[in-house]
Design a protein that fits this description.
Number of strands of chain A: 18
Oligomer: homodimer
CATH superfamily of the largest domain in chain A: CV3147-like domain
Helix content of chain A: 25-40%
Largest interface: A-B, 17 and 17 residues
Strand order of the largest sheet of chain A: 16-15-14-13-12-18-17
Strand content of chain A: 25-35%
Distance between the termini of chain A: 54 Å
Chain lengths: 375, 375
């Protein structure tokens, strides 16, 4: 156990935005809520799943919806506490801890606001090891656990508790309610025992987010790029450095969907790099050549500041580094790829690990440079 | 108290379809479910609100959605019992009775199926005195009662309980869930005490439906038109007798919306009659002249058989009588007209009682026939 204070929240906000791969919501709102709550109630204990009693009730706390909307429609905070209390009423148990359902900007931080107010610890784990856009894209689902009941609340005071027949129905009903509630809402599902969390969640991801954030902030304080340290720490790959020449995005079914196009920073480098996202970054291509795809983590850093950028922040003219990191092994299984691989999102390509794709891509470019006959 | 047996169900099915003004769902499915349940569990007591203890819990049972879909997606029956049991769990009270929320084909009969299975009486009252397409169009809302909690279930096994901030949010969230659930679902709202039902509901409407149905079936058994008897019993008006020359309908936001056009049966009678519906019949015009509008009851009877027709049954070539009856006084108040008058449905006309409109229309036609200079 360690205590999460305001500096740790600052670190997690930055690190979780990187691990959130463009999604999870802008960290600003979540950070404000967590900082205010810690200021008022004191630091929040961060506990490993195994530090809890096996039967303890652990309640995930999250926001569902389009991050673009969250910047304009500020949560009240009451709705986060409400979804926890509804879960307690339904199960007849007091929550022993809360946890994030994903590692991403707003959704890694909201649990700390609720935990501070309720005097509970946060579990150092999540169910994605990154952020994903749909509610069934969690290790709990891969492991066959039931999402029910699902509790939802909005800032207006509407509350919903539902028992879907499966995780796909959970996503379907929750998404539809989210749209009605103004494209964002508080949501809790997969309220589990500490034992179930220990077996199924991806552990220590909040500690990892804090470590990543500290690394980025340390580099920034010395005006250095965090990229080399991040590639080493997360076993990653630099896919491309370039300038955004076009961004299109639209609100579609409660998601921010879109595409960004890039030109190379290095003069004379002929590349046609495209990045596709649905809240999260899902696919990077150079021409027809896939560089990385979901479920591997695709990350965009501001090239000037080293700050990780959510997809709703991408703008024409921005200079960025695009990185990719291997997904947790649970996502690289057949089931993981079926649930969150490129085909699920409508891209007609097979998933291949980023390290394989990049080895091939580098060979191709090496060959091209060495021998004009191959191309 | 009287007992509702299978013959009474047959009568209610016919009478409630008439009072349902084109909506409330095709009676066939509801009748089948009620007949089967009574066959298995015996007749169901029909009780006046004042026969219950004031604090008794009364649970309305209904289907929400597009009647067109209900003909193809048969309810399982389990979802009706489920929404009752969810209400009992939430309130911590056993239901003393169920009731229909509206008088309309399927929704007057479904409560009898649940009542038979659960050994409960049905209250002889409803909250519309007819059928209406939206959930806030109930006397309970006019009287400021809260709809929450709302319970919903579908035939697949999904269940939802929600607490909307008001009746408009109740309708909004329920409609969105209904669409996801396949355009029809079981729904209960306004679980009230018997005392509240006594003060706010429209009483004896199931008895009225049975009486109306008996009248129609008696006329049919003698091959006579039920129209004269119905006009007398319900203080109504025959607007028009004609043949359907065009019907357009579409599924829109969980409703069946549409319009029918008619030609006169009498040769040489030059009329351009149009009937507009959103599940229920809402407006009848001859050219630019309004004959009747919601909240007054507009009814279509098959001219050959005297059978009342729901809007999903209207077909090209059908010969029909269009009748209208005065709405209950609660709907003719300023609040009633605001909630369920023509302007709410997007028709830019003022509500005026059908008896006024028809007196004017008849005068106009009388003048026309008597004096060609006026037109």
């Amino acid at each position: 156990m360690k205590n999460i204070d305001q500096q740790a929240i600052e670190n997690i906000a930055v690190g979780a935005t990187l691990l959130g791969t463009g999604g999870g919501g802008d960290p600003y709102i979540g950070k404000l809520m967590a900082l205010q709550a810690i200021d008022k109630y004191g630091p929040v204990p961060l506990v490993a799943p195994e530090e809890l009693s096996p039967d303890d009730l652990v309640v995930p706390i999250s926001m569902i919806g389009a991050p673009t909307v969250l910047l304009e429609k500020i949560p009240s905070g009451r709705e986060m506490v409400k979804i926890l209390e509804m879960m307690e009423t339904y199960t007849g148990k007091r929550a022993a801890a809360v946890m994030p359902i994903e590692i991403g900007g707003v959704n890694s931080l909201i649990p700390f606001a609720v935990a501070a107010e309720k005097g509970l610890p946060v579990v150092d784990a999540d169910a994605m090891g990154r952020a994903f856009p749909e509610a069934q894209m969690v290790t709990f689902y891969l492991d066959g656990l039931a999402p029910e009941p699902v509790t939802m609340a909005d800032e207006k005071g509407n509350t919903v508790l539902f028992n879907p027949v499966d995780a796909v129905w959970s996503e379907r009903l929750a998404r539809s309610l989210t749209i009605q509630m103004g494209a964002s809402a508080a949501m809790s599902d997969y309220a589990l025992t500490a034992e179930q969390v220990k077996r199924s969640a991806i552990p220590y991801t909040l500690s990892l987010a804090e470590d990543v954030g500290r690394t980025i902030l340390a580099a920034q304080s010395k005006s250095r790029s965090p990229v080399p340290a991040l590639l080493k720490k997360l076993n990653g790959h630099l896919l491309f450095s370039g300038k955004i020449v076009d961004v299109t995005r639209r609100l579609d079914g409660g998601f921010t969907k879109g595409e960004a196009r890039f030109a190379a920073l290095a003069p004379g480098e002929a590349k046609d790099v495209r990045l596709y996202f649905q809240n999260e970054y899902l696919l990077v291509q150079d021409g027809s050549h896939v560089l990385a795809s979901t479920p591997d983590l695709i990350v965009v850093l501001d090239n000037d500041t080293g700050t990780p950028m959510t997809s709703d922040r991408l703008k024409y003219g921005m200079r960025v580094d695009i990185l990719a990191f291997p997904a947790h092994p649970k996502w690289r299984t057949a089931k993981g790829i079926e649930v969150a691989g490129p085909k699920y999102f409508g891209y007609d390509i097979d998933y291949r690990p980023v390290e394989e794709r990049m080895a091939e891509y580098k060979n191709m470019h090496h060959d091209k440079q060495g021998d004009g006959n191959i191309g």
